[in-house]
Design brief:
mainly alpha, 2 helices, about 90% helix, rod-shaped
Length: about 90
């Protein structure tokens, strides 16, 4: 059976991994927003271009949703560790 310290260490590793993924996703979201703006500007009047822009917007929203869930995970891990080490 794992010790409390081993569980705490594993929880912190999960939180650190979530933060790393969240940070990379945040950077990607910013890049995608820039590309989306450019695509919208050049795709006006083109059905396929406008459809592509909508897909990019959907991807941005999915990234934002994932970032929020990763933030929630980080918070829950911290709460878990605090409760565990009381």
């Amino acid at each position: 059976m794992a010790s409390v310290q081993e569980v705490v260490t594993a929880a912190y590793r999960i939180a650190d991994a979530a933060k790393g993924v969240k940070d990379r996703m945040s950077a990607s979201t910013g890049d995608m927003r820039n590309h989306h703006s450019r695509l919208v500007a050049v795709a006006q009047g083109s059905r396929s271009g406008e459809a592509a822009a909508q897909q990019v917007q959907g991807s941005i929203q999915a990234l934002q949703d994932s970032i929020q869930r990763l933030q929630e995970l980080e918070s829950q891990v911290k709460t878990f560790v605090n409760d565990l080490t009381k």
